[in-house]
């Protein structure tokens, strides 16, 4: 299993992060990307997460940010709360990699809004 953390912008380099005390933990810089996101609350089951993924894909296709024929996407589940947080208060997200720049996304959204 893999777990990722997004660090605050005050850490400007990998070397400025605190050193892990567990040898199984490795720090790695991941390049930025532009993603489409859907947020939901509750316990994040596999079924619910995949339902939200499908809904997000449909919305992104409606906004022309994903091709209509797109079946497979690079996506990620993101959970923000410890397991003891009650379901209604849990914040979950599904991210889909749009594989385009932020500027291209803004231009496509502006074109859809201008119709």
Describe the 3D structure:
25% of the residues lie in helices and 17% in strands. It is globular. It has helices spanning 46-62, 102-113, and strands at 35-41, 75-79, 91-97. The chain contains 2 helices and 3 strands; from the N terminus they run βαββα. By secondary structure, it is an alpha+beta fold.
Quaternary assembly? single chain
Radius of gyration: 17 Å
Instruction: Give, in order, the helices and strands.
Output: EHEEH
Shape: globular
Strand content: 15-25%
Estimate percent helicity. 25-40%
Q: State the total count of DSSP E strands.
A: 3
Distance between the termini: 44 Å
Largest sheet: 3 strands, antiparallel
Which structural category do the helix and sheet elements fall into? alpha+beta
pLDDT < 50 runs, ≥5 residues: none
Q: Which sequence of strands runs across the widest sheet?
A: 1-3-2
Q: What is the average per-residue confidence, as pLDDT, rounded to a whole number?
A: 90
Q: Tally the helices: what do you get?
A: 2
Produce the secondary structure layout.
Blueprint: E1 35-41, H1 46-62, E2 75-79, E3 91-97, H2 102-113
Antiparallel strand pairs: 1-3, 2-3
Name the features:
115 residues, single chain, 25% helix, 3-stranded antiparallel beta sheet
Structure summarized in a few sentences:
With 115 residues, this protein is an alpha+beta fold. It has helices at 46-62, 102-113; strands spanning 35-41, 75-79, 91-97.
